[in-house]
Amino acid sequence: MAIVLEGLSQCPLCGQVLDRSNEFIMTPPLTSNTKDALFIFSDAGIHVTCLNGHPQKESLLYQMQQSDETRDAANAVCIVDGKLITYPDDYLTTGMLTSDLHEPLVEFNFIILNRNNNTNGTNGMSLFLY
Ligand SMILES: [Zn+2]
């Protein structure tokens, strides 16, 4: 979740300072991809009034919901073996790779893996993301 310093942090949409005089929400770190349409909203404090008028609002709320669901321990089921991941250090997720629901990459958003699952019999998973 974003860290907002009231009176110092700025809304990425209007550039105004965030404080108690104007309601704002805080978003999770959704993406580090600067070319994604939701990058500007990632890990930020955003005025509710600014967000309400923005065309990406529904996309942001949808991706935040998806993110919340993968953070819920009850949903921490590995896509490889279908088993619940009970040890937090074993949990690995791809997060939001794209907010564009028309990109093929969207199928890999928020995939949950148990890092101990592997197919070659060695300890640990070999997962490479570039
Ligand atoms: Zn604003």
TrEMBL record:
Name used for this protein in its record: Uncharacterized protein
